[in-house]
Amino acid sequence: MNAVNAPKPVEKALQMLYNANMEAYAVGGCVRDSLLGKAPNDWDITTSATPKEVKQVFEGYRVLETGIKHGTVTVLLDGTPLEITTFRVDGQYLDARHPESVSFSRNLLDDVTRRDFTVNTLCWNPQTGVVDLCGGIADLQKGILRAVGEPDRRFQEDALRILRGLRFSATLGFKIEAETAKSILRNRQLLTAVSAERIQEEFTKLLLGKNAAKVLREFHEVIEVFIPELTPLLGCPQHTPYHCYDVFEHTLHALESIENDEILRLCMFFHDFAKPACRRTDKAGTDHFKGHEKAGAELVRPILLRLRYPRKTVDTVTELIAIHDTKAPKSKMEAKQLLRKIGVDNYRALIKIKRADNLAKADPHAIDKKLLQMENYLSEILENGECYSLKALTVNGNDLKSVGISDGPEMHRALDALLDAVIADTCPNEKDALLCFAKTLPR
Ligand code: ATP
Ligand code: MG
């Protein structure tokens, strides 16, 4: 286990509360991640002091009542916002998500037992070192994610914990303890009570986790609660010489074969969603999935919108799904044609997508060379500043007007024809040559 090294403002806040005879600890994810040698996302402080007492301790500092109902105030300490929450006991949960009320406590045990998983209950301050009241250290050492207390009760209180559990298992690479795992599956339908935004947030973090594929394989039924479109992928055969897995298993292999970038992971998770609907088996028993890319983009768009992904994410992911099966260019000319159609960013993403897609097939290295070539074409084209877009043509609409081409469809056709010629190398990208060429175009 690594040591906990709290940032200066956190240490200072803990010290100030200690000096005021209050108990105070860094708690939860920050202690967990520190002990694992990872940089924590954020530092939360838990204290025996009531919000009123916290405000007194930090008199003279800016204190914002960010979650006062739940006992949270944010103190701005030397420019750093710190969330300080009073030890608390949650009241009844009636909506499977939020407690009806919370009450404050002076007892740390109350506060840690309301938390979700044992590894998230660890506390630390400079005087006590790590305080472990729920067996979090043993689980952290063994790599086990275990609900605090009775799993059914904890997931029924707050169903988001179901998805947080899968997310932590995926990101930390921890195994979910057997009773906790059974309870997650048993209570999965409760996720329907959780807002789309919170589901999206946890689902994205899950997909980005190093163990995402493993978690999805074991807990796909949980995901099917909010993405029922996943169900047909399970066991959907792919009787083709190229594939060795069913569509779901192929998806998981593709997912773990791509870097942990949100767009790319979303793209791999969803890329073959339309395969089951597009599957046709010929007389020889071979499956074909014609049109599954376009149909996939159409199928996935409403799913992403329903999960409240930002418009830009929805657009990019669906654009990539629609082109994911595009063949690698066989010549520099084809590479430029592709670049013209999809742009540099999507071209780069397509290389990664095709590589991951292929790594999940029967012959994982079948197209390595083609993809290397695809990369090389791009480097050459960019290094030489070779033209593949209308923007890079040395003539524009005004130039063409001067040789009698009129605005509108005729102009579009002419510019496209000139770009075709430059890409095909039948005309150099030089103004005079292009104007000459333009005059020869049929009107
Ligand atoms: P990360 O910040 O890396 O996403 P985290 O564990 O710090 O993970 P936060 O959402 O920052 O998660 O929450 C801080 C702590 O609050 C958690 O470690 C846990 O102790 C507690 N917690 C958060 N959400 C819940 C919940 N839904 N139910 C119970 N406890 C929770
Ligand atoms: Mg956190």
Question: Can you give a write-up of this model?
Answer:
- The model has no long low-confidence stretch (mean pLDDT 96).
- Helix 10 crosses helix 11, helix 11 (247-256) runs antiparallel to helix 12 and helix 14 packs antiparallel against helix 15 (311-323).
- With 443 residues, the chain is an alpha+beta fold.
- Strand 8 and strand 9 form a beta hairpin.
- 50% of the residues lie in helices and 11% in strands.
- The chain has 20 helices and 13 strands.
- A seven-stranded mixed beta sheet has the order 3-4-5-2-1-8-9. The chain has a two-stranded antiparallel sheet with strand order 6-7.
- Residues 28-29, 41-42, 44, 115-116, 120, 158, 160-161 line the site of adenosine-5'-triphosphate (ATP).
Label this structure with key terms.
443 residues, alpha+beta, seven-stranded mixed beta sheet, two-stranded antiparallel ribbon, elongated, binds adenosine-5'-triphosphate, binds magnesium ion
Write the layout of secondary structure elements.
Elements: H1 8-19, E1 24-27, H2 29-35, E2 44-47, H3 51-57, E3 62-67, E4 72-77, E5 80-86, E6 88-90, E7 102-104, H4 108-113, E8 123-125, E9 129-131, H5 136-142, E10 144-145, H6 151-157, H7 160-172, E11 175-176, H8 178-186, H9 196-208, H10 212-226, H11 247-256, H12 262-270, H13 275-278, E12 280-281, E13 287-288, H14 292-306, H15 311-323, H16 332-359, H17 368-383, H18 397-402, H19 409-423, H20 431-439
Helix pairs in contact: 7-9, 7-10, 9-10, 9-12, 10-11, 11-12, 11-16, 12-15, 14-15, 16-17
Magnesium ion (MG) binds near residues 29, 41 and 42.
